[in-house]
Write a structure and sequence with these properties.
Blueprint lengths: L5 E6 L3 H12 L5 E7 L14 E2 L2 H5 L6 E4 L4 H13 L3 E4 L2 H6 L1 H11 L3 E2 L10 H8 L5 E7 L2 H13 L3 H10 L8 H4 L2 H15 L9 E2 L7 H9 L2 E12 L2 E12 L11 E8 L3 E8 L3 H16 L7 H10 L5 H4 L5 E8 L10 E9 L4 E8 L15 E4 L2
The protein binds NADP nicotinamide-adenine-dinucleotide phosphate.
Length: 402
């Protein structure tokens, strides 16, 4: 690959694809020729000429003159097909599709090794925050103890507006949908799945731990109400949706959950659509990275940075992952990596006590009941919270008390 003019083909010309197109056209350093852009909908109006597009993936995947394939589509299975075929054909790939990357991580890792190609994906977690390469390179030898972050701009935007404007969830969500800060179907964001995929990817690069998204607990803010915000406010706290991975002996506690954070916490100050990631190491102590976590140009700029990295033959070395594999000697499964056997102190707001039946409540430290609002603060067996993962029927709101 030459540094002068690299040949790039894109899959997807939506929010991220168009953002990349713009930042590529404004880049004075990286000279790239966009060979073709593959999209799906033949009837959609495009901002640029029809000669730039194809609707047939093999028009790109069968080409021999490409340096990089950039995958930015919103179809997980198809994204995996495209990315794996490109790698099998010996082409380096950049991807922004966190769900696809998290769900197929094992397969994608193998494909990189077998085909001696690079797959890099800085735009998939933290948007414009360069966190994956930082974990991979800067924290290469550092003994990291934990990583925790606000990784989803939509939910942080909703939580911020609820608090600062004293509004209820439904009203802010509706507004956010109208102004483009939330999807028409917000489930993946508000139920914590988007944060889950990103947390799984960060766990790989922070600790070398590969977990399937369905093995990791994610609770979201879909059941939050202004009562919860008021409760936090009265105590000088804020509620943030946080994905975290922390070393616990020779296992890891990895989960996504709303949490109360206090004013001293750097994540307290991350507002609206901004993201923040705090990394804690044995020697570096706490460091926080903040920036726009999503959006067309911020994500496009992270993707551009990946394309640029490929021009100097960058690839993730996955040293921590290789070390974990060697340590576990083949027994590289969730039971050996994931610590779920602990109690966690949580605030639970509920309507009917029956809603708590599925939970292993061990020790109630505070209880409040009124005609409108009921909540408890209790130590709960962590494993039992999996009953609420992706559970559309449950109406309880759970928030970790730190
Ligand atoms: N939006 C963000 O801020 C952001 C941030 C980080 C990561 N991501 C990830 O980046 C990816 C793209 O997100 P987005 O927001 O740009 O999505 P989007 O705005 O919905 O655009 C999706 C694009 O994918 C194309 N597409 C869908 N299926 C395809 C197929 N089978 N073959 C070729 N093209 C196909 C669509 O084609 P048509 O134009 O023909 O419909 C469209 O151009 C997703 O995985 C998302 O999770 C997004």
């Amino acid at each position: 690959m030459s540094n002068d003019k690299i040949s790039v083909a894109l899959f997807g010309f939506g929010c991220v694809g168009q953002g990349l197109y713009d930042v590529l056209n404004h880049s004075e350093v990286l000279q790239a020729n966009i060979a073709k852009i593959c999209v799906k909908d033949r009837n959609k109006e495009r901002k640029i000429g029809a000669e730039n597009f194809t609707f047939e993936k093999n028009d790109i995947l069968n080409r021999k003159d490409l340096d990089v394939v950039v995958e930015m589509i919103n179809d997980t299975k198809e994204a995996f097909e495209i990315v794996s075929t490109a790698m099998k054909n010996g082409i380096n790939v950049v991807s922004a599709s966190k769900k696809m990357l998290a769900e197929y991580f094992e397969e994608l890792y193998k494909l990189q090794e077998e085909n001696k190609v690079a797959l890099i994906y800085e735009g998939s977690a933290g948007g414009s925050i360069p966190i994956i390469r930082t974990l991979e390179e800067y924290y290469d030898n550092e003994l990291l103890s934990s990583i925790r972050g606000i990784l989803n701009g939509t939910t942080n935007y909703i939580l911020t507006r609820m608090e600062l404007e004293s509004k209820d969830y439904g009203d802010v969500l509706k507004d956010a949908q109208e102004s483009g800060f939330a999807e028409i179907d917000p489930w993946l964001d508000v139920a914590g799945f988007d944060t889950l995929y990103k947390t799984c990817l960060l766990a790989v690069h922070a600790f070398g731990v590969v977990l399937k998204p369905d093995q990791v607990l994610n609770l979201g803010i879909q059941n939050i109400s202004f009562d919860d915000i008021r409760y936090a406010r009265e105590k000088g706290l804020r509620i943030k949706l946080i994905g975290s991975a922390a070393k616990q002996g020779d296992k890891y506690r990895v989960f996504v959950m709303p949490r109360f954070v206090n004013k001293e916490d750097e994540l307290y100050k991350i507002l609206y659509e901004y993201n923040g990631v705090e990394v804690e190491g044995a020697f570096s102590c706490k460091q926080t990275f903040t920036g726009k976590g999503a959006g067309s140009h911020p994500t496009g700029s992270a993707v551009l940075s990946d394309i640029s990295a490929l021009t100097y033959r960058y690839k993730y070395a996955y040293k921590k992952l290789k070390k974990q594999r060697a340590r576990l000697n083949g027994n590289y499964n969730a039971e050996n990596l994931l610590d779920t056997d602990f109690a966690i102190k949580v605030y639970i707001r509920y309507t009917d006590k029956k809603e708590l039946d599925a939970l292993d409540i061990r020790n109630v430290v505070e209880e409040y009941r009124s005609p409108g609002v009921n909540f408890i603060i209790a130590e709960v067996g962590f494993k039992s919270l999996y009953a609420l993962k992706g559970n559309r029927e449950s109406k309880v709101f759970v928030c970790a008390v730190e």
